[in-house]
């Protein structure tokens, strides 16, 4: 059963690049569409523009550079130590381009979301837009999912469909998908912040019902 929160849900957002999804989340929090507060933004790249977005919004911006660590486990341990300083109720991956160790993922099980630019389970991994075009798909899109050890394989929370148009290339398709990312990611985070969304076992549960048994593809 969902339980509404009175105090804002503390978030930590992980990024690697420009942070456009981060900006959508910042804007949604500021507008009151999400009952949450971003406690920190952490990047594995010091040059990531998303860090500047965080600073402009008055959000602590931190860097944990993966190149300074001997292996993925050492990096993930350092990253988790930084995250846990802020005691987040939810960790949000927003263009965070690192494969995470099972130990890290399990530490945040049920309280870590990711957004992936495809209609999962189709096209897990990279270069999803070109792969959808090469496969002759008529539809593409984006999915929000809980993070589990399987890469892009966690339970899907919601998806948004983008029609592939004649003449589309990977760049034009990516731009339209990104517009939908900015729409559905704040919505999914809002569900979690409101106590409506949770991970139970291996199922995403929204308003007491398994998402897999509902039509949660947003158009």
Any overview of this molecule?
With 219 residues, the protein is of the alpha/beta class. The protein has two domains: 7-108, Rossmann fold (3-Layer(aba) Sandwich), CATH 3.40.50; 116-142 and 158-218, 3-Layer(aba) Sandwich (Rossmann fold), CATH 3.40.50.170. Helix content is 31%, strand content 25%. The protein has six helices and eleven strands. The strands form two sheets. It has an eight-stranded mixed sheet with strand order 3-2-1-4-5-6-7-11, with helices on both faces. A hairpin with a 2-residue loop joins strand 9 and strand 10. The longest helix is centred in the C-terminal third of the chain and has 24 residues, at 170-193. It is globular.
Determine and state the CATH class of the largest domain.
Answer: Alpha Beta
- Strand order, biggest sheet? 3-2-1-4-5-6-7-11
For the record, what is the CATH homologous superfamily label of the largest domain?
Formyl transferase, N-terminal domain
| First and last CA, distance | 26 Å
Give the H and E element order.
Answer: EHEHEHEHEHEEHEEEE
- The portion of residues forming beta strands comes to 25-35%
Helix content: 25-40%
Name the overall outline. globular
- Overall number of domains: 2
What CATH architecture of the largest domain would you give?
A: 3-Layer(aba) Sandwich
**What is the count of helical runs?**
6
Tell how many strands the DSSP assignment holds: 11
Binding site for (6R)-10-formyltetrahydrofolate: 72, 97-100, 114
Binding site for N(1)-(5-phospho-beta-D-ribosyl)glycinamide: 19-21
Family: Belongs to the GART family.
GO molecular function: phosphoribosylglycinamide formyltransferase activity
């Amino acid at each position: 059963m969902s339980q509404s929160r009175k105090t804002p849900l503390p978030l930590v957002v992980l990024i690697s690049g420009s942070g456009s999804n981060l900006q959508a989340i910042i804007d949604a929090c500021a507008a009151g569409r999400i009952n949450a507060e971003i406690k920190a933004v952490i990047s594995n790249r010091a040059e990531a523009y998303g860090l500047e977005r965080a600073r402009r919004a008055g959000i602590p911006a931190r860097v944990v550079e993966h190149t300074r660590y001997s292996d993925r486990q050492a990096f993930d341990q350092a990253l988790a130590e930084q995250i846990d300083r802020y005691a987040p109720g939810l960790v949000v991956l927003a263009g965070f381009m690192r494969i995470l160790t099972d130990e890290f993922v399990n530490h945040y099980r049920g309280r870590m979301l990711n957004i992936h630019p495809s209609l999962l389970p189709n096209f897990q991994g990279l270069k999803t837009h070109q792969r959808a075009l090469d496969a002759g798909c008529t539809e593409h899109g984006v999915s929000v999912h809980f993070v589990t050890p399987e890469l892009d394989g966690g339970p899907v929370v919601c998806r948004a469909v983008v029609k592939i148009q004649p003449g589309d290339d990977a760049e034009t398709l990516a731009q339209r998908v990104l517009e939908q990312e900015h729409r559905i990611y704040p919505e999914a985070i809002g569900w979690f912040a409101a106590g409506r969304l949770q991970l139970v076992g291996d199922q995403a549960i929204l308003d007491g019902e398994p998402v897999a048994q509902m039509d949660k593809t947003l158009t």
